[in-house]
Amino acid sequence: MAKEELFSGHHLAWLEPSGKDSDVVLASRICLARNIQRIPFPNRADVSQLAEVAERAASALGDVEEAMEEPFDRVDMAQCTSLEKNVLVEKHLVSRKFLKNSTCRSAFISNDRCMSILVNEEDHLRIRAMAAGLDLETPFGKASRIDDVLEAQLDIAFDEKMGYLTSCPTNVGTGLKASVMLHLPGLVYTENIGNIINVSPQIGLAVSGIYGEGTETVGNMYRISNQLSLGLTEKELIDNLRMAVGEIVAQERRARKALLLYQKDRIEDEVWRAYGVLRYARSLDGGEALALLSRVRLGIDLGIVEGVDAGIFGDVLLASRTNYLCAIAGNENMSKNEIDRKRAEIVRQILGNTD
Predict the structure, then answer these.
(1) Which residues are CB-contacts of 280 (< 8 A; sequence separation ≥ 6)?
(2) Where does ATP bind (predicted)?
(3) Does 28 count as an annotated binding residue?
């Protein structure tokens, strides 16, 4: 797969609707934080120390590719435009925090776009792996194999009592952050989403927008992750999150059934109106596009809309993002009106209507 596809392609395998419970759980992700001994954390390291981390990480990439049987693209953030960096965030391949300072920062991104290694983010190394649906085991297995390769070559900071040492205290221990991306229109429409948001911190979970803590919730999509790492094993953290998500999935499905039972006419009307706008609109605002997309996906999952592949959700989700639209247009200075028209055009193409 060409490296240019990183910024122009709109299909992401980890958002395909083929995973377990994919009617509610869009994707699962595992992130492992690792640091090299005797080198300060990135926020305290000088340029020469950051360069040493980058060089040592790059030297291990060949072994990572061999172990994973997957080629990785190396992306030097200092050589990326601001637009390209933001496209990588929109594709969930790097974090927003990764964009703050490009000095000695690079990302190794797998050919299938399901794995990435961030060098000199908050920690020296952030290993990220993703999978479709509710499947934390597959990305954990991939992240762990990458971790094994890196630990065989690098002196990773580890304490017998504390575990892996990380820049953020909440990651000390396993260094693991497990998260899932959920589509919860049923709980939002029935006004029960507040229960999930309020209860989650009490069981050690954090609820945020799909781009992480502090980001806005859009299109009825939420990210749920573990808050702490210390004192629990990787298996316990993953099992706890899976059990909690399993309960949320059950609640969301009950809410959807209630909507069909008591508000069927309203839901069908909203779904088809949304489908019509997405299919024929000549201008779409970003927030409007995601709100409409959420309704259409709900309609597909409930059997209201037939003959439309649920896979369009992931494609439209990315193709409606502002930086991505500017990237494929080759113009980072597009006006809002131009972006909104381009968004509507791309969405029409994905839905199979190019009138």
Answers:
(1) 348, 353, 355
(2) 27-31, 92, 126, 177-181, 208-213
(3) yes
Taking a C-beta distance cutoff of 8 angstroms, is the pair 138, 131 a contact?
yes
Q: Six-digit token pair at 218?
A: 């859009």
For 111-128, the pLDDT digits (tens) are: 999 999 999 999 999 999
- Report the distance separating Cα 158 and Cα 35, nearest Å: 9
Q: Which alpha helices (DSSP H) does 70-136 contain, by range?
A: 82-90
Query: Is 109 marked as binding a ligand?
Result: no
Distance between CA 138 and CA 298 in Å, rounded? 26
Per-residue pLDDT tens over the stretch 46-95: 999 999 999 999 999 999 999 999 999 999 999 999 999 999 999 999 99
- End-to-end CA distance of the chain: give it in Å, rounded: 30
> Is residue 303 marked as binding?
no
Q: Which of 57, 70, 82 is nearest to 113 (CA)?
A: 70
Bridge partners, 116 (sequence order): 109, 128
Residue 31, annotated as binding a ligand: yes
Kindly state the helix (H) or strand (E) to which residue 131 belongs, with its residue range: strand 125-132
Q: Kindly report whether the global pTM for this prediction surpasses the value 0.90.
A: yes
Residue 176, SS3 per DSSP: strand
The annotation status of 179 as a binding-site residue, yes or no, is yes
Say if CB 26 and CB 16 are below 8 A apart. no
Question: Do you know the residue count of the chain?
Answer: 355
Any binding-site annotation on 180? yes
Check the annotation: does 29 bind a ligand.
Answer: yes
Q: % helix / strand / coil in the chain, to the nearest 5?
A: 50, 15, 35
Q: Is 178 flagged in the annotation as binding? A: yes
210 is in an annotated binding site: yes
Encoding tokens for residue 303?
């059997």
Query: Does the annotation place 316 within a ligand binding site?
Result: no
Residue 177 counted as an annotated binding residue: yes
Q: Could you give the C-alpha distances from 319 to 97, 277, 278, 350, in angstroms and in order? A: 22, 16, 12, 9
Q: For residue 13, what are its two tokens?
A: 């395998």
Tell whether 213 is in a known binding site. yes
